Structure formats: C-alpha cells, structure tokens
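Each letter names a residue; structure tokens follow underneath. Both lines appear below:
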Amino acid sequence: MIYAVGIGPGDPDMMPHKTVLLLNKADVISGFDTVLKLAEKHFNPKATIVSMGYKDQSEKLEKVGELSRDGKTCVVCFMGDVNFSGYEYLERIHSSSQEPNPVIIPGISSAQMAASKTLTAFETSVFLTFHKRGDISKDKEFLVTALKQGKAAIVIPLPWDFMPAEICKYLIENGISGNTKIHVFEHLTWPEETSYSGTLAECDQKFSDVSIMVISTESDNN
C-alpha cells in the first residue's frame, strides 16, 4: 500500500494526527530530500528512507512501488497538501510506482496559511500555481480575468522565471491597478518566516523559491 500524505507547510507540529501516526509505523518513507527533513521527527526509526531529487525521482518511486508490492506500508511525503499543486507528483506515483490508487491524506497547505494571515476567504478568491512544467500563458490570462472580476488570488510563483516582481509587472501591463494590495510570504511556519506587504507597483524585491503571494481585492489609494 502506498500513502500520499501532505506534511504541511513546514512546521512538523502542524501535521494531521493521522499522518503522524502513519509516519510512526511506516515501513518505507519517501519524498524529496527537503520535504523529508521537515517531517523526520515523526518517522519510524526503523523505516527505510527513500529520498530523491528531481533527476532520480522516477527511479526512486519505482523502488517504492516494488517495496509496496512486497507488502510494505509505504508513505510518499508531499509538501503542504497533495491537492494544492501536488498532482504532477501524484501522477509520477501512478506511472513510476505503478500504483493507480494511492491513499491520499490531506495536509495543511501554505495557501491555507496565507489565506488565514490575510483574511482571504477561499470562496471569494482563486488559487493558482505557476510552479509546474509546461506553458503557463493560459494561467497568466486566467489570473488577470479573475482579478478583473473582483476575485482575490492566492498564487504560487514559478522559480525563477515568474516570481512576485514579474507577476506584478505582468498584471499592471494587463490592466490591473498598480495600487492593488499584495502580500508575499516566505517560509511560512518555519522559524525564518518573513512577509512583505505593498502594492503591485511597489513590489520589485527578490524572493526565495519558498514563497507564496496573495493579491487582494483592495487598493491602496493613499
């Protein structure tokens, strides 16, 4: 059996209790190196750890699939929540591990944390990730349309090609007011968490690849 679990935004104490219990007893725990480090305090000390990077993920997930078919309880760790920007990775579990039906256990995402910090309701906003492979032009157009319709937006940037400063510039060029308020959070729930607040026109800072952006429905008219 393979479980796909969201380990939360970074703070290991923000994992669902069910996920913690599963990590405590899992035979095999797998995921990207940076993700595993955030969750390791809850690992079964006897578990086989299958860490991976972008270049060897297919090979490593194939190994996880083999261990699962041998009867091992396998857990693949996702950053945040599987359902927030995690489906490309989930597809690799299907293809490389040959597991068509992994059990998904949701986690807390950075999108939820950013929404809470900015009092942004999901029913009045859109969530959009640019952090994916392939053409993002349609997603960029969708973001403009949503903002023009009065929606707020919670956005995961694309390192390093479409980061907050580039997003702000693109939005202004496509008719969104430069006075629109924004918030950018880095390393949410980590000890080094930082935040930035300003407007589209003011944002020219460089941010890390662990950042998320909230574009408000409000404008700064001062």
